[in-house]
Design goal:
Low-confidence stretches: none
Number of helices: 2
Helix content: over 70%
Structural class: mainly alpha
Largest sheet: none
């Protein structure tokens, strides 16, 4: 009953659609954070490779 009231907009809360969107957004954020970390590591590695004397 409570879930139906939330879906109908009669009670405050997160609807199924909003929950799904939030899960997807969190998954995407996690993926992007991992990609940024990989790029940081790669940039660090490549900046060290071109140092004189190595």
């Amino acid at each position: 009953m409570k879930k139906a009231d939330i879906e109908d907009g009669q009670r405050p809360g997160t609807t199924e659609v909003q929950s799904a969107e939030l899960r997807e957004a969190k998954r995407r954020i996690k993926t992007l954070e991992q990609e940024v970390e990989v790029l940081r590591c790669a940039a660090s590695y490549f900046s060290q490779v071109h140092l004189p004397g190595k």
